[in-house]
């Protein structure tokens, strides 16, 4: 095919004026402009169908980004994320709705507070590529050729001009983002060397605007974080230099304090410390080890042959808890399964908040032990297992617990939140535990027990729906629709972006096709998928060069697999 230019595209679109919508199919292809190349990969079938997929490539020698803006993985991700935000902002300014359905739309993935590896902007050795969608304009089902030419040959080039060229960007904010993300990655990498599982920098702003607005509470309303002296640690960040803050050591940490004093806010910041945050977020230097998993009760979920016997045994009617199955888990069985599955997926830190835990899973006090003897209570409470998790499996726990002082006995560190400020009350808590000995008996037994590997069966993952062999999509951060089945992820709190769910859905299919051979275990499959993504980027999941994927962890891939209601394991 002869090489076509943007001018050719314009002429083509003008000729389509008034034709039926299907005639747009003819514009799929590649078009050169002096500074970039436009790829129209897929044209929508009608104005209401999912919008058309488009890519724009700019060669580095034209884009002019200094190599130090993308020389390492950390920097490349931060740059691509920055460019996505810039593109989204300019697109929002120039796009105008002008006809039926999606007519006139120009949209790229819309990042939140987290800096994530995404496929919306891809940076290779040769070029920078932005992937987005456009709604090709129509009135009814008649093509609006002039408007289409305006959209693709004027507006898109304008957005590209203002986003993919270094000279057009605000250098200071660009470098701030790159250097901040690099520092945060470095800091996260340092935690194990210092025996820490999390770090919260002094001056951090942890509270958010609201339950549905993830931006920081405005400066004048928020109390900045300040570490207690005894937990204070220092780091010399590669770019920013000296930073101080609270280091949370490995082991068992309690966060105590009165209601509404900031306990959950601290834990929420820690659970999202697995991600980097944009400058100005307030949590730029709140970092947590990458395998940290939030654990909560999730009654109603399905469980497929999970060995929850460390926590639950002797169920009524002799139900097996070493290969426990249910279509409708209770609060405590769901929480037990969530822990075992997290361990199976490699978690080295568990995060629990009493607000979302099942009480009977967490504690069983002396009086209750007297009234209901151990042989009539299937649950071994978490309090009797939390130390074994650390000593036998090297798994630390951070637990928000304002309601039971029994936990003083099993904690290494106790942090009290008082009026949004943390205090180290470990010594006090230990003294109280000494003075008022808990009369309860330990019910934890000799050891935690082994995590038994499970082998998932490929045929139990069916992505087909109607005439489609593969139909996978996402509903915000709440659910993946996998073929005919919805995977409810609303209780998987560390998912922050719809792009992660799109990618996880695709990764389930990828794992099924490549690695589920009836022998490999869940852990092995997770590892193989993540290694492929590490090597080839998220595009390994999908050959269509989609722009709507964002990176996820093996822990969330496992969470989705485990919540697929059709899953069967050997
Ligand atoms: P707890 O879990 O101790 O009951 P929360 O963490 O839910 O308390 O916090 C209670 C309220 O206080 C929330 O509305 C939260 O946004 C706000 N808050 C938390 N930390 C701060 C802070 N550092 N500065 C100002 N407000 C805060
Ligand atoms: Mg709370």
Domain unit count: 3
What spatial form do the alpha-carbon principal axes imply? globular
Record field, number of beta strands: 28
Number of helices: 14
For the sheet with most strands, the description reads: 7 strands, mixed
Percentage of residues in strands: 15-25%
Looking at the chains present, what oligomeric state does this protein adopt?
Answer: single chain
Radius of gyration, whole Å: 26 Å
What ligand molecules are bound, each kind once? Answer: adenosine-5'-diphosphate, magnesium ion
Mean pLDDT: 97
Low-confidence stretches: none
Q: How far from one another are the termini? A: 52 Å
Instruction: Please estimate the helix content.
Output: 25-40%
Q: Could you say which structural class the secondary elements and strand pairing correspond to?
A: alpha+beta
Can you describe what's shown?
The protein is an alpha+beta fold and 570 residues long. The chain folds into 3 domains: 6-169, no CATH class; 292-435, no CATH class; 458-563, no CATH class. Helix content is 29%, strand content 21%. It has 14 helices and 28 strands. Strands 1, 2, 3, 4, 5, 7 and 8 form a 7-stranded mixed β-sheet that branches. A 6-stranded mixed β-sheet has the order 19-22-23-16-24-25, with helices on both faces. Helix 3 (73-94) runs antiparallel to helix 4 and helix 12 crosses helix 14. The longest helix is centred in the N-terminal third of the chain and has 22 residues, at 73-94. It is globular and about 85 Å long. Magnesium ion (MG) is lined by residues 263-264, 355.
SSE blueprint:
Blueprint: E1 4-5, H1 6-15, E2 29-32, E3 37-42, E4 52-59, H2 60-63, H3 73-94, E5 106-107, E6 114-115, E7 121-123, E8 127-134, E9 138-139, E10 142-143, H4 145-163, H5 171-190, E11 196-201, E12 208-210, E13 213-216, E14 232-237, E15 241-249, E16 252-256, H6 263-271, E17 276-277, E18 286-288, E19 292-295, E20 303-306, E21 324-326, H7 331-344, E22 349-353, H8 359-362, H9 366-371, H10 386-393, E23 396-400, E24 413-418, E25 421-424, H11 426-435, E26 472-475, E27 479-482, E28 485-488, H12 498-514, H13 522-536, H14 554-563
Parallel strand pairs: 1-2, 16-23, 16-24, 19-22, 22-23
Antiparallel strand pairs: 2-3, 3-4, 4-8, 5-8, 6-17, 7-8, 9-10, 11-15, 11-18, 12-13, 14-15, 20-21, 24-25, 26-27, 27-28
Helix pairs in contact: 1-4, 3-4, 3-5, 12-14, 13-14
The structure holds adenosine-5'-diphosphate and magnesium ion (MG).
